[in-house]
Amino acid sequence: MNQLKDIGIVYIVSTPIGNLSDITFRAVETLKAVPLIAAEDTRKTKILLNHYKIITPLISYYEHNHFSRINKIIDHLQDGKDIAVVTDAGTPGVSDPAYKLIREAIAIGAKVESIPGASAALAALISSGLPTDRFIFEGFLPPKKGRRKRLLALETETATIILFENPKRIKRTLTDILESIGNRPAVVCRELTKLYEEIIRGTVEELLAYFSKHEVKGECVILIGKDDENVQF
Q1: Pair 34, 60 in one domain
Q2: Neighbours of 155 (CB within 10 A)
Q3: Residue that is last in its domain, among 115, 135, 170
Q4: Can you give the pLDDT at residue 168?
Q5: Is 5 within the bounds of a domain?
Q6: Rounded to whole angstroms, how far apart are CA atoms 52 and 31?
Q7: What is the three-class DSSP state of 67?
Q8: Helix or strand or coil: residue 187?
Q9: What CA–CA distance (Å, rounded) separates 9 from 140?
Q10: pLDDT for 66 beyond 70
Q11: Domain with 145 in it: what CATH number?
């Protein structure tokens, strides 16, 4: 559909994944200029807004309320008002429900504009030491049903595999990876850009042994390299 003059613009704004300085000038300007910000967690986004003295009103938009919120946001756009969409950290639409809102906005003819910035997946990839020429992003594995099936589908994958994981499930996930994909070169990045940033490199077995002895805090990115004895740390 063609852009209609009386429909607002949706700005997809990337925010810091940890260090509050990791935000673009354009992102700050956009968050100040729009009349409304749709945030995954308004409490977390408020910390960022306060840091940059941004007083724009917030509305919550997350996995469990996106159905009820989409209509309200669409009405806002059809009133000719712009909106910025942010996630807790990083780029909206990556392992969160923002794409559902974007799809609905496109359907009514709204312009969608990306304000690029931080991404945990890319920050982890370029720091990992694993090949970056080809990679596959798998996001979060299912917490229960379907985990093994997803991993077995990656058994012959030669691109670097990127996963997100909750710290409480890191040992379980590494165990599942070992049993399904094998003892490949691997990296776990946690607390990226924060004070206690940690990057652990080795094989899947070595990482499993490490996390069996160390407490894990903060969201993690797991990277799995191809089954190649020439890739060693």
Answers
A1: yes
A2: 10
A3: 115
A4: 92
A5: no
A6: 10
A7: helix
A8: strand
A9: 30
A10: no
A11: 3.30.950.10
Both structure tokens of 63: 């996995």
Query: Could you give phi then psi for residue 162, rounded to 5 degrees?
Result: -115, 125
pLDDT of residue 2: 41
Read off the pLDDT of residues 156-167 as tens digits, 9 standing for 90 and up. Answer: 999 999 999 999
* Cross-strand partners of 83: 10
pLDDT at 229 over 60: no
Residue 163: what are its φ and ψ, rounded to 5°? -125, 150
Domain boundary, last residue among 85, 115, 145: 115
Distances (CA, A) of 5 to 70, 84, 109, 220, 228: 21, 18, 10, 43, 55
Q: Which two tokens stand for residue 158?
A: 């030669």
Overall number of domains in the chain: 2
Does residue 158 lie in a domain region?
A: yes
The SS3 call for residue 45 is helix
- Of the candidates 18, 21, 38, 42, the residue with the CA atom closest to the CA atom of residue 30: 38
